[in-house]
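Researcher: Here's the sequence for the chain we discussed earlier.
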Amino acid sequence: MDLRKLKVLFDMVQGSSITVLEVRDATQWIRVRSSPGSKPLVASRDATVAEVAGPATAISGPPVDHVVKSSLVGTLYRGAAPGAKPFVEVGDPVEAGGALCVVEAMKLRKEIHADRAGIVAKVLVDSGEPVEYGQPLFVIA
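Model: Thanks. This is the structure I predict for it:
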C-alpha cells in the first residue's frame, strides 16, 4: 500500500465534513472513517487498521467480496443447458450451495455452486466460453 496515497485520503477526510470515504479497485479496498472530534481511521481489505495520526480503535469494514472459481477445465454454461435461462444474474441473491452455472468437460457436466450466501455482484465469464481450473467466474458480495 502506498503511504502517500493513504495520506492524501486521510487529508481529504480530515479537512472536510466527510465521515466515510471508500476507494475500491480490482486489488484493493480502502475505507477512511472519521467521527466528530476524532482522528480519521483507515482500514484496508485485509481488515488491518493503520494508525495514521494519533491513537485509533479498530473498525470493521464491509464484508470482502468472495470470488467463485472454476473447479475444472471446460466450457461454461450459465444455465442448465446451452441457451437456457441463466441460474443467476447480477443482483440476484444466492444461498450457500446454490447453483451458479454448469461447466462441461468431455460431455460430463458439473454444476458450480456458491461457497457462501450473498448477492451476485459480477459475472466474469459469458455462457459458452472456455474456462480454466481456478479461473474466477462470479463475484459474490
